[in-house]
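quick q for whoever's on today - can somebody do inverse folding on this one?? i tried earlier but teh output was garbage lol. tokens:
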């Protein structure tokens, strides 16, 4: 697959209306490839926690209770939605007390996840990076096993491709100025 094609046609899959299956073994091999992302000082600031299709109902149930306390309606909606995806990662990254290194780590996470999303696209699957409010809750951090020196950067849902998702054209206003 051409790189330009992959960059333009990779899409965030946001419809979870049917039960999806993915090639987990393939996805795991893509994670290792994605780590060839640039990262300053070779700090490799990333860590992923994988929730397999099989584990999703139990995980979704725990997360729903922590995220939507006393709101059974929301809990049920959440569980119904996320258990449809093929599997998901929780994205974690190293916190650094030094401002420069901390910023570099966060930028490296973006390059790593973009690599992974492009590779997933090339392998015929879909994905979506998700950052719901509840990822900052201590209870959620505890459920996913985040260490004290880690940020939670969200989820990466791994899905089937969704042929109906359209390319959101970029505005590219003031993209480049000349000095
Ligand atoms: C850091 C980050 C966080 C995101 N969080 C969410 C999210 O919480 N929910 C969601 O539906 N999409 C989320 N997205 C996906 C973007 O909304 C998506 O990239 C955008 O709609 C453009 O679509 P495309 O990826 O298909 O080009 C996130 C993307 C990034 C890079």
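ok took a stab at it. sequence:
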């Amino acid at each position: 697959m051409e790189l330009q094609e992959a960059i333009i046609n990779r899409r965030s899959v946001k419809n979870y209306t049917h039960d999806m299956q993915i090639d987990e073994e393939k996805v795991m091999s893509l994670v290792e490839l994605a780590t060839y992302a640039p990262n300053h000082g070779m700090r490799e600031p990333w860590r992923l926690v994988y929730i397999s299709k099989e584990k999703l109902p139990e995980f979704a149930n725990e997360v729903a209770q922590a995220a939507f306390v006393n709101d059974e309606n929301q809990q049920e909606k959440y569980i119904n939605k996320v258990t449809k995806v093929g599997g998901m990662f929780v994205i974690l990254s190293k916190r650094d007390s030094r401002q420069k290194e901390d910023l570099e780590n966060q930028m490296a996470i973006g390059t790593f996840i973009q690599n992974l999303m492009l590779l997933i696209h090339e392998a015929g699957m879909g994905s979506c990076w998700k950052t719901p409010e509840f990822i900052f809750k201590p209870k959620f951090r505890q459920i996913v096993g985040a260490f004290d020196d880690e940020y939670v950067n969200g989820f990466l849902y791994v899905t089937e491709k969704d042929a109906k998702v359209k390319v959101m054209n970029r505005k590219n206003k003031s993209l480049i100025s000349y000095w």
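fwiw The radius of gyration is 17 Å. also The helical segments are 3-9, 24-34, 56-67, 72-82, 99-122, 138-144. so keep that in mind when u check it
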